[in-house]
Amino acid sequence: MHGKTAHELHNLLINKKTSSVEITQAVFARIEKAEDKIRAYVTLNKEEALEQARAADRQISRSPDIPISQLTGIPVAVKDNMCTKGILTTCSSKILSNYIPPYDATVVTKLKEAGAVIIGKTNLDEFAMGSSTENSANHVTRNPWNLEAVPGGSSGGSAAAIAAAEAILATGSDTGGSIRQPAAFCGVVGLKPTYGRVSRYGLVAFASSLDQIGPITKDMTDAAIMMNVMAGRDELDSTSVDLPVPDYRKALVNNVKKMRVGLIKELMGQGIDPEVKAAVKKAADTFANLGAEMIEVSLPSFEYAVATYYLIATAEASSNLARFDGVKFGRRSKAAKDILTMYYNTRREGFGPEVKRRIMLGTYALSAGYYDAYYLKALKVRTLIKQDFEKALGACDILISPTAPTIAFKLGEKTADPLSMYLSDIATIPVNLAGLPAISLPCGFSNKLPIGLQIIGRAFAEEIILRAAFTYEQNTDWHKAKPNV
Amino acid sequence: MKIDVDHVAKLARLGLSEEEKTLFEKQLSAILDYADNLKKLDTERVPPTSHAIALKNVYREDKVIPCSDIEAIMANAPEEANHMFRVPRIIE
Question: Which CATH architecture is the domain A6-256+404-480 placed in?
Fold first, then answer.
């Protein structure tokens, strides 16, 4: 039961072949069995989840007279940087280790309104800052395909939970690749929607001009189902865009004939693992065999994307994280003699090393004398990156590349060298800078670890990337492989 | 590029140990050296992009809506008194 997709379970539910309580219990039984090894979760919400499952079953019993949502009765895991009313929300940080939000993030509200069952909160790099989930103050999460490898990050808990069948669906957030890179490392599907497509209200802010919430799922149909519920304008997030939400399931058409597919030259060269390259090349051949028109495209500004990103994202983070001062919520240092020592010591004790490093870098990039040279310069290069995308996506309908330059690396391999960790996001970062939608889906294996294919689209063209990804999925078997845990 | 760690930490109201200061000075210098690559690009005539999707000021109706439960909000306060957040003395 726990291994099934949401759309498969929905069919069983509406045909009264199973119940939400039965599914939810199966997922918790699976968690009990696998969690010792994986440790995807920070908090489990079993009691409330079973209550939600019983409520869903009452709704289902009245269907089809009163129609139900595709998510009614389906267990969903929520990344622990999204506020859940009455449930601990730690952001995997010591400073929020006791924080119980008085409200739900809009995404959580929408999931609940659709009848989804909230099973728990998943681990992440502290404040979503990292690419391996090793920066969590809670614990390390392991890759279900190889327990010595990282699950990726920062949504490593959500991706590992989906790969290990410890959840049916999960939410992630993506500032520089935090949905797509862990999805690639764990062999699952991860969609980062266009900036503004999904409300960020209640998502603990990291870099507000880059953050976006999206689904992590077992297949493309489930990603479309989740988007149907999550997308849309929200009055509580003024950057959410007022565009109609299509039925994303209608985009799932097995046909890419005449679609113009651009292979990004800069992400198929130096620094990309040869086996990853070979798998992506093969995916390009698959698209060509299915009737797509393959084009090689060049986006020369990509060379500068990682530097640009780490100046902009840290600048925004240094400002966003100023709210953690020990006054209104979160932990306050006991060594708080006066207001200044309260700030200094609260933040010293509450933040982990990567968060401190980024606050320092961002504060520096914004400080007098360096603002023009670093922050403003980065904003200008961001324009160049955006322009390169506009050009490439004028000539192509979608762009493809590896999601990450390598397969999942070993635990501890990159923790001592922050720059090498940052470079693992080289393929995903440019997409956030331009605010575009992109998806990662499995396209092969190397050393028994999954390889991810990234498909990038024009702003608000989620339907086109879903169609391309669905076609690829229907014509390959990679998504059917499951780890042995 | 050398970075004045003490000054930046003070701006960020961030307490750091001596080991962290030494480590960050080294690591941040390496990151800034890498970021100096951006200087190779001529951006004289390039406008900055602070938001990927063009945004204008967004207005909404000024209406009163119920606030979250005050007890649930105050339950998160490190120290509180009569529904107020308590902090160390600021003014002598």
Answer: Alpha-Beta Complex (3.90)
